[in-house]
Amino acid sequence: MQVLLPKILPRAEYSIKLIFTDILGVDIEIITNPQKARNNCLVYGGKPVKNLPFLFADSIIQENDISAKNPQVFFWDNTPVFFTSSANSIIPFDIFSATFWCASRYEEYSNFVPDKLERFTAQNSHAFRNNYLNKPIINIWANKFALELKKVFPDLKIDKPKFRYIPTIDIDSLFMYKHKGFIRTIGASLRDIFNGDVRNFKKRFNVLTNKDKDPWDCINDVINLHTKQKEQLKVFILLSKYGKYDKASGIHTNYFIQQFKSLFEVTNIGIHPGMSGHSDFKIWDAEFELFKSLFGAKAVLSRMHYLKLNLPGTYEYLLNKGIIEDYSMAYPDTPGFRAGTSTPFYFFNLKTNKQENLKLYPTAVMDVSLKNSLKFSGQEALEYLINIYNKTKAAGGVFISLWHNESFSGYGEWQGWDKVYYDFIKYLNNNAD
Q1: Which domain holds residue 194?
Q2: Threshold 0.85, pTM exceeds
């Protein structure tokens, strides 16, 4: 299929390829010369050409700068849309401008309101305010757009990529009690005594005297759980020095090194850059060097600790370090689709106005959000997981969940949450295609 543009527009090319190639599996040719247009051509721009199907282009797709925008939402076939098209357009909204708005994270450049950790939160997003955050809205648009295209291009072949589930886990610390250092261990023990928490005091003592296994040291159980999944588990490990928000422990111990070297052979391991590096890239440099020394290879997968992203700086740094896939595209406080899509897509740098070779994998749901932000019980969390999984499956793309080894332990504040995930995997296995 052809798409005719008035001129080369980097933003339009980016969105057109995301909709047609990545989501609908349609081979696309972008042209700028009307003389080369064939019968299977969609005109995208300011005015129609000949008698070809036409879609009006909003100004945002033709610009090179960034300005404050708050597109007004209206409904098309019971679906929220924005960037109104013209009366003679094939559909009533500019799907490519709307896709660009969502996927480029335009509002995070133009309307950034930080939380206490200087992150852009769901509550400040256009998707949250307009009630479409929990839907892979770009995929939904694409599927509806495809139906309209088939009416004017009956021979159009659509071959959507197969839906996938990608399980991921973050390991902020492999140990709950071990390798915390003398002062931290004594302080925590005294706190247990002061609070009358005999159970925790005894558990800590038994773990430190090797009578019990550390509750968070459960990575092998996690690996075994995913043996029936088609996609390999992806594990992101924190290798930072101890700090206010970075609590990695025991990363230089022989046990830690042996665990992850053996893990490196059976699954995909990525780096989990700590919070401190946002203020000093040299800190991240050291973490990347440690990763390379541990595994004998550079990190190519990443997820940012606390899901903190500063655009475009964070992604520019990751590109410079050789990262090719990042899994940070999620909100820390609310489940949903931060970039509006469940399909992996490339980072578009609004500062340079071009697509970069860094693929972003949207994470739909995180254990911490379910428990701490939404205050779900285990059963409510399971029902939500299954619901958003099925929504994603219906729309297409990938479904990515984020769990932690703490929650897999089912211990302490995470009591019962291991069962939530086990039951979710059981549901997937029982309903596999």
Answers
A1: 180-212
A2: yes
